[in-house]
Amino acid sequence: MEYTEAWLKYRRLSLSRQQCEEKQYDSLISYAVRVDQGLKESPCFAVLISEFERGVKALLGERPHEVTDGSETLALAVDPAFGSKDAYCIDFTQKDGFGAITAHDVNGLLYGVFRLLQLVATEQTLAGQKWTCIPSNPLRMLNHWDNMDGTIERGYSGRSFFFADDQVLVGERTRAYARMVASVGINAVVINNVNVRSAATYLITDRYFDKVKALSEIFAEYGISLYLSLNFAAPMELGGLTLSDPLDPGVISWWKEKMAEVYAAVPKLGGFLVKADSEGRPGPFTYGRDHADGANMLARAVEPYGGRIIWRCFVYNCQQDWRDTKTDRARSGYDNFMPLDGRFLDNVILQIKNGPMDFQVREPVHPLFGGLTKTNQMLEVQIAQEYTGQQKHVCYLMPMFRQILDFKTYLPGHEDATVADIISTRALKNANGGIAAVANTGNDVNWTGHDFAAANLFGFGRLAFDTAADPESIAREWAQLTFAGSTKEAIDAIVDILMRSWPAYEKYTSPLGIGWMVNPNHHYGPNVEGYEFDRWGTYHRANWRGIGVDRTTKGTGYAAQYREPNASMYEHVETCPEELLLFFHFIPYDYRLKTGKTLIQHIYDTHFEGADDAAGFLETWKKLEGQIEDKEAYARVLERLTIQAASAIEWRDRINTYFYRRCGVPDEKGRKIYE
Ligand code: GCV
């Protein structure tokens, strides 16, 4: 087996005929299609019918047949009057024994089919039930950081299945991938790393057009638009120009011609993702231009083809001096982009990381959300677990993402607007918006290295489609689908581990929002001062008195970037949420938290608790031996949980020892802390 079917196993149900009838599964067997002839020719239509037939056959043992004489028990219909783009409704309430999936468009029907199959695979009763699903976000995107040599930047699941040896790969796995991510509503995919170097710069040349086009066509069958990451210096590297100045007429016409060529060869291309002036990548700053100049120049070039430019706001000074306590990396996104609000064209979307630093286990929400009022915005999260255990540790991220999406921004004129309201375009009524995740897949047999990391891929799709979805329900559905055939006790235990995994990881790693206590470069494992004296702007400032970064008006002033009342909330120690206390304030070790514990005791306690939690996950899993149907998956998870339990002990001891040595305060409970 080269790869698993992840949550698309469709294991044959072991229900009696009567049970199937009670749940109304018998109505899936004869279906009619109510879709205009023109739409039937769309690339997605054949796929959705074959998915439907294949899924029902696998689950119920009988292949459904299409009827045209009005005798159907299920209707698959497209009705443009229903909902909005990609919306669908699964309705089993209308008349006895009859059901329907009605969708706004063919893509919506595909999502409806996948969802119906997932409902059946998890043995939900259809009779009398209705599911109306209108996507929260226009763009639901995965960003792969795959390099053309086959490596993956921050990849923890093997090598790329999009590239090897500077070639684009198009094969069975491409289709299996598209099918898998479409089944949870993903509609856009960037296949190459945002750090565009060497061969990847040539993806927009005829060296690769055939393969890129083939990929875009497979994706289109699953309702997915293909995007590419772009090298801002391409006019120099490909075109032989002496500069890439976005206001230079020669550069402007080079891009215009280039895009005409690209879209003639790959007409289905959705657009481009751009990392500019960040971590050594080229950008408009070199020419004294700003990011609106850069993004708009590209946006004009792709506009005739309906293309979009997704422009990242991860722009900061990565040559900082640790002695400088005024420059604050956290401020940089806002400082660079807030003055440009309103200057970006309609087909530009700013892609903003969830927090102001870089995907730490806990960060405040980026202040550009709620700051910007006239700009299309996308949220960028990371399911590749760069700083959250690298898919060796289980860390289910949907509870974190829900907190981010639910954060109240106090956007002027929309006092209740959350991040979800902004990116969905509900609050700003913008043309474009959505959510992107840095993807966690590779060519490992289970796609994601850790089998449990697939819950983040599945969950991201679900949450992107419905930002109000409940993380625990998502986890349960994923576990039931992926571990079909396992005992109920096993499914309950998996859900319990997933739901406790982010808090556990947070407990045994860096405390109260401070982040960054990892080994430099690869970012795995504890190293309390690994980034303390480096150039990356990632300091915790621990000394013998306390720890934390003063980001109040007396410090770097970062807290003031938020809208009120968030700015005041973060400014004051008393109102700052404690999980972010050290992100915003320097706190002495003897400071008493709301629990009554001192800061130092809190650090000791959480580190003992977190390591115990990780040990508990392993114990639970060991007890489930024989209850997980897929023996290979059982063994793989066992191996990862063993690694995690050992690593959590290393984290616990290093962090506790570091702080004990700093302040000399013993643990109140007298547990072993190494000298
Ligand atoms: C793709 C962090 C990561 C880099 C990544 C960068 C980004 O710095 O460590 O690997 O580069 O973020 O998001 O551009």
Beta content comes to 5-15%
CATH topology of the largest domain: TIM Barrel
Number of domains as seen in the coordinates: 3
What is the average per-residue confidence, as pLDDT, rounded to a whole number?
A: 97
Helix content: 25-40%
| CATH 4th-level superfamily of the largest domain | Glycosidases
Number of helices: 20
User: Biggest sheet, strands in spatial order?
Assistant: 7-10-11-12-13-14-15-16
Number of strands: 18
Q: Which descriptor suits the 3D outline?
A: globular
**What is the CATH C level class of the largest domain, in words?**
Alpha Beta
Radius of gyration: 26 Å
Largest β sheet strand count, sense and barrel closure:
8 strands, parallel, barrel
Structural class: alpha/beta
Q: Identify the bound ligands.
A: 4-O-methyl-alpha-D-glucopyranuronic acid
Detail the poorly predicted runs.
none
In the CATH hierarchy, the architecture of the largest domain is: Alpha-Beta Barrel
Q: Distance between the terminal alpha carbons, to the nearest Å?
A: 49 Å
